[in-house]
UniProtKB/TrEMBL annotation:
It comes from Arachis hypogaea (Peanut). One of its GO terms (biological process) is meristem maintenance. Residues 28-60, 67-160 form the Aminotransferase-like plant mobile domain. InterPro entries: AminoTfrase-like_pln_mobile, MAIN-like. This is Aminotransferase-like plant mobile domain-containing protein. PANTHER family: AMINOTRANSFERASE-LIKE PLANT MOBILE DOMAIN-CONTAINING PROTEIN (PTHR46033:SF82), PROTEIN MAIN-LIKE 2 (PTHR46033). Pfam families: PMD (PF10536).
Length: 176
């Protein structure tokens, strides 16, 4: 028997925990975890309570990574902050050349996946730009199948729903 917050985890509970898909959570208590204090401190320093988000530094290294992963940088007139115009993506990566080597095919596949993520799965209000936040996800294509895209999409929708609800609440208050 194991203990959870002062309560004993009886083995007879296991089928119900599995049914609720929470058994993995209950099993965490029989494992030893080492707290990475510098990592926690870094996140605490980057937390912005007014927006309920972490502010992560993002800049020049991101554009270097863009060039490493896609083999090209967009011209300055095609960039707006950290987003690239969709038309540039389409013109640059619209069709993979015949006889392309494996690395070229991977670059075109990365660009295609970034377009899918930025325009379909995680669309935002811009609708004509692709944010480069998706670069880390396409860096190792072979790992992408292990990501929980459903969970991320749900979190994305929730984030936008909260934003829209907050705006609607503000509008409602302004009417009175």
């Amino acid at each position: 028997m194991r203990w959870q917050q002062g309560m004993c985890l009886d083995e007879r509970y296991v089928p119900y925990l599995q049914m609720a898909r929470l058994y993995h959570l209950a099993r965490l208590n029989n494992r030893c975890f080492r707290l990475d204090e510098p990592l926690v401190s870094a996140f605490v320093e980057r937390w912005r309570p007014e927006t309920h988000t972490f502010h992560m530094p993002f800049g020049e290294p991101a554009w270097q990574r863009f060039q490493e992963l896609l083999g090209v940088l967009p011209p300055a007139d095609q960039i707006q902050k950290f987003a690239v115009n969709c038309t540039w993506f389409q013109e640059t990566f619209g069709e993979c050349p015949d006889g392309a080597d494996e690395e070229t095919v991977r670059r075109f596949a990365r660009a295609y996946i970034i377009m899918l993520l930025g325009t379909q799965l995680f669309a935002d209000k811009s609708s004509n730009r692709i944010h480069i936040r998706w670069l880390p996800f396409v860096a190792r294509l072979e790992e992408m199948g292990g990501y929980s895209w459903r969970s991320v999409a749900l979190a994305w929708l929730y984030r936008w729903a909260v934003t829209v609800t907050s705006v609607l609440d503000l509008l409602a208050v302004s009417w009175f």
